[in-house]
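DM from R.C. (forwarded with permission)

"hey, sorry to bug you on a friday — could you get me a structure for this? deadline for the figure draft is monday and I only need the backbone to look sensible"
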Amino acid sequence: MTPATAVELVPYDPAWPEDFKRIREKLERLLAPCVVTIEHIGSTSIPGLAAKPLVDIDIILRSSTDIPRATRILLEQGYEPRGNRYDDEVWAFMRRDGKPPERVYLCPPGNQTHERRLIFRDHLRAHPADAAAYARLKLELAEIHRHDGDRYTAEKRHFIDAIIRKAISLRSA
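My reply, with the result:
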């Protein structure tokens, strides 16, 4: 049985965008030959949104063949491997000793998980009412599933999928 993971949400920290810039610069130096782009994702990338106190980052690689090399570099830098989280070649790593902690994802180009994350992030940045609804849901679920991070994440899926569908339909309109 997997141990329970606590859900800790904190109010938005205006330092998160600067934290991301600093982390991105470090990752660009480390992974330069492999990287196409590095994106701030997750709730810390949405101004005003309560979030887990860690910065989520997608690293888009030139090719899926860069994953072993990038993995080796991250492991050498103290990142913990967290596995293939989404069954589409997204490899997760944690660095808990950073200020703030970092969760990075290695993504091959054209990755669906990464594309969906950008659609969701960009929509919430541009639509405060939807961001506020997401904030309310997160706080409610964090209270209900305080000691079950996996369930907390799973319970957000319906809302996230609905926002992505809405964002795509707004683009098409």
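R.C.: lifesaver. The radius of gyration is 16 Å.
me: no worries. The chain has one domain: 16-172.
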